[in-house]
Amino acid sequence: MNNKNRFYRSAARLMTLMAVASFLPNVASAAFIDFSGTVTTAAVSYGSPGIANGDALTGFIEINDAAAAPGTTFDAGDLLGFDFSVGGVDFALPGVSPFIGFGGTVSADGLTLSNILIQTNAMTSVPNCVNCFLTIANTGLFTVNFADYVVGGFFTGNLNTPSIRPQPVADADVPEPSAAVLFAIGLMLLSVSLWRRSAR
Fold first, then answer.
1. 185 φψ region: left (φ > 0), alpha (ψ -120 to 50), beta (else)
2. In terms of Cα–Cα distance, which of 21, 8, 10 is closest to 183?
3. What does the alpha-carbon distance between residue 101 and residue 63 come to, in Å, rounded to a whole number?
4. How many helices (H) and strands (E) would you count in the chain?
């Protein structure tokens, strides 16, 4: 086999592999679970940590995609991201890590959670909310506890049903135009190589 044939065959293989690789689906690596709620009760002995009745709880947890499958139980080992806000107080990684408790179970339909318990460690860096920690549990309620020398008490609120964001659907059914071109060129080069070989 001469050098030209080797070149044609090598180029054909490379382009074909590149084209096939581009056909493979893009698989999501993470799932997001969204939370929302409203503060309904305040029990403050003195001061205020920037939270009041009527304030909103918003936030999400990000876990490994495999841990978000229907009926799957997850724990802190599956955690990729965490960010919650209640009024003017933010609970986010890495400030809330490690957790006192973290875990849950995805519902059978994969749309929400059938079980959840999140309790953060005390936050020492939140302005106006020294030693704050957030608790979310199955009861449909959340609690923000706080305590220092001049501020103490807790807030509770109603927690709405958590929702799991739908993951992107793999787009392997429709190849990119560039992938189709690569595949065609690869076949063409392979054909030329075979033709030149048979013509010898």
1. alpha
2. 21
3. 15
4. 2, 11
CA atoms within 13 A on the CB side of 93: 11
Specify the amino acid at residue 80. Answer: L
Q: Domains of the chain: which residue ranges?
A: 3-22+174-199, 30-164
- Grouping H, G, I as helix, E, B as strand and the rest as coil, residue 183 is helix
User: How many CB atoms neighbour CB 113 within 10 A?
Assistant: 19
For residue 142, which amino acid is it? F
Q: Show Cβ contacts of residue 110 under 8 Å, excluding neighbours closer than 6 positions.
A: 68, 69, 70, 164
Give the amino acid at 144. V
What is this structure's pTM? 0.67
Identify the pLDDT of residue 169: 47
Structure tokens at 172: 């392997």
Structure tokens at 133: 């920690």
Confidence band, pLDDT 50/70/90 cuts, at residue 116: very high
Residue type, position 66, single letter: A
Q: Are 12 and 193 in contact (CB under 8 A)?
A: yes
